[in-house]
Specification:
Order of helices and strands of chain B: EHEEEEEEEE
Strand order of the largest sheet of chain A: 1-2-3-4-5-6
Distance between the termini of chain B: 12 Å
Shape of chain A: globular
Structural class of chain B: mainly beta
Largest sheet of chain B: 6 strands, antiparallel
Radius of gyration of chain A: 17 Å
Oligomer: heterodimer
Strand content of chain A: 5-15%
Distance between the termini of chain A: 24 Å
Helix content of chain A: 40-55%
Radius of gyration of chain B: 15 Å
Largest interface: A-B, 9 and 8 residues
Strand order of the largest sheet of chain B: 1-9-8-4-3-2
């Protein structure tokens, strides 16, 4: 199983690539990194159109920040150490998610799924609550959003777990995720072979058995259309 | 309290030639690590994500310093877990980053004559 990584700086070329290779049975999603323009911007519509056509969700993944012709890792400046950069990455994930929601990408492309990969998860309650609060007052600015932002997230967005946050009491993270019924939104990721990977036996052990099954299996199978076609139904495995 | 079990792991010459040896003693996997004229015995499980910590590098590290300065020290006394890079002090077992949260299991190890001995 793989991701079709495209160069988002040339959306038309990326769309051609998605149509050219997106039918490969091993490709389950399109993957993009950050550039200088947030992912919800209409310049990327050719990518979303092609991805939707090929049955591939689009995922954000780190890698473009502060690189080549792309923008800095955060708008307020670059980082001087790995720990600074990596600790700031979730801000980028949040910005991209907020953009995709507010620009109406998920309305324009009603079959499209959006994934955040390698952005951590503990910020999700904040973004969900913040988006809904802000939108309620200025709904008329973004009238293409017909439902609260949180509902788009629940239906169409999934967030991979790595690098999962590690409070001293790991149960606190479970409590935090439970505040938004987040066990339905998470997909376990190891980030193997990177050194900062997550051992699933350790990082998931405080989730309930039901939650672990969702996070390690059924959420992803439900989210990726091409997994659904090839995997037996989870229940059938007994 | 039961008396410690005494285990002869190998000869001093063998350990000094190899640098370290991972052995199974009872139901525990132990890394026996030589550092100059000292020897350490470490449970081969990292408290963080259960990695085989004794496969990591043994070296010194940068010590707490003034802002912008790098001062190297603790040569041969820091075991770094091969998975996430956590640094552990071989003398105390404590992680350098969070000494009270992450700590290795240490056992007494000695050179006794030509033998490398671990007490469990």
């Amino acid at each position: 199983m793989g991701a079709l990584v495209v160069a988002p700086q040339d959306p038309e070329q990326a769309a051609r690539e998605i149509r050219r290779r997106g039918g490969h049975p091993g490709m389950v999603q399109v993957m993009m990194v950050s550039t200088r323009t947030r992912m919800g911007n209409r310049v990327y519509n050719p990518i979303y159109e092609a991805a939707q056509e090929m049955g591939l969700p689009v995922a954000w993944h780190p890698g473009g920040e502060s690189a080549g012709i792309n923008g800095p890792l955060t708008a307020v400046g670059v980082s001087s150490s790995f720990v600074e950069a990596h600790s700031s990455l979730p801000q980028v994930a949040q910005a991209q998610l907020i953009s995709v929601i507010c620009e109406g990408t998920l309305e324009r492309f009603p079959e499209l799924g959006f994934a955040i990969v390698e952005g951590g998860v503990a910020w999700l309650p904040h973004v969900i609550w913040r988006l809904d609060r802000e939108w309620r007052s200025v709904r008329d600015d973004v009238p293409w959003l017909k439902r609260p932002p949180s509902e788009y997230i629940r239906d169409r967005v999934r967030v991979s777990t790595q690098p999962i946050e590690e409070p001293q009491d790991r149960g606190r993270l479970v409590d935090l995720i439970n505040t938004i019924d987040g066990e339905d939104l998470l997909m376990y990721a190891s980030d193997y072979p990177h050194w900062d990977f997550d051992n699933p036996d350790v990082v998931l052990r405080r989730f309930s058995k039901e939650a672990r099954k969702k996070i390690t299996l059924t959420n992803a199978v439900g989210f990726y259309p091409k997994l659904r076609l090839s995997a037996p139904a989870p229940e059938a495995r007994g | 309290m039961a008396p410690h079990e005494r285990h002869v792991v190998c000869t001093r010459a063998e350990l000094e030639a190899e640098g370290r040896r991972i052995v199974r003693l009872g139901n525990r996997e132990i890394g026996v690590i030589s550092a100059g004229d000292r020897v350490f015995a470490v449970r081969n499980v990292c408290p963080h994500h259960l990695a085989p910590v004794c496969l990591g590098t043994v070296s010194g590290t940068t010590l707490p310093s003034d802002v912008g300065d790098f001062t190297y020290g603790r040569e041969g006394l820091v075991l770094r877990c091969p998975w996430h890079g956590f640094e552990f002090d071989l003398e105390t077992g404590e992680s350098l980053a969070q000494p009270t949260r992450w700590r290795l299991g240490l056992f007494r190890a000695e050179f006794e004559g030509d033998d490398v001995v671990v007490y469990l």
